[in-house]
Fold this sequence. Notes:
Blueprint: H1 9-20, H2 22-30, H3 38-67, H4 83-116, H5 139-162, H6 164-183, H7 191-219, H8 223-237, H9 247-265
Helix pairs in contact: 1-3, 2-3, 3-5, 4-8, 4-9, 5-6, 5-8, 6-7, 7-8, 7-9
Amino acid sequence: MEADSIPDLGASGTTLFLVRLPRIFDYRTSHDSVDASASLQSKYLVLQVFWCRGSHCCSCGHIVDRGKGGQTSDMENVRFPKPEYICLALAIPIGIGVLLSAGQYLFDRAQWMAQSFGTLGSPQFGSYFTLPDFWLLLLFFSAFVEEMIFRGFLQHRFVQRYGIYRGIFLVGVVWAAFHFFSDFSFVRITDQGAILNLASRIFNCVVLSYVLGWLTLRTGSILPASLAHAIYNVLAFSEFGQPFPGKSTLQVSLWGVLACVLFRYWPARTETGPEPTPEVGNLEPAV
Length: 287
């Protein structure tokens, strides 16, 4: 039997396992006692959504890779970058989260001093910086496989074809479309709410794509983008900081400001190499 005819049991078996894994959370949720807390059920729901996304990404990546005859390997983008880029990938989402919480604390503190000083207790600094639950670290898997597909595979081709800015924008739109199914699978909303959700999802994904795309282009690896993406998901689904209206929009807007700064002062290298110079043959002497 030829080597090419041997089925890829490793990738197929892994994909099958990942597709079936969310059913474990379904079983646990449906067989929990009646007194199970709502927070525990919400944890299962969040994990189910992200495991489904990750397994779908694995399936798509495996199909694309086999469709190319195995010539394209996603592992080429999974290389360990310089330590400073790992630190930067962790600092971006954590720094923006800490900035929001610190700003909210100072705002609440100023309001307390102006209106409630001496009558109510002061805002507690620690309540604005609660640590996320440990189980949320499992969201790194879905972030990694999404980055492997959207930044590792699609971005390379879109940037080559459309340029760096338009290419990253189109990757963000495709990435947003990938989330549409999960955005509307567990809620019932009006037509106006659906339009707002679509616009919000596209805005979030396009803005985040520029920062994650910059990390990938700058380092030549998807690992920094995967770390930043995972920490962003952890902070978004945790109780880090006090909630307030428009917090998510403000958070993504800060990512947008950061993207402008990164591309302005530290331009990312494009994945398109320099154009080859034409070879000049021997010129015949003019008669």
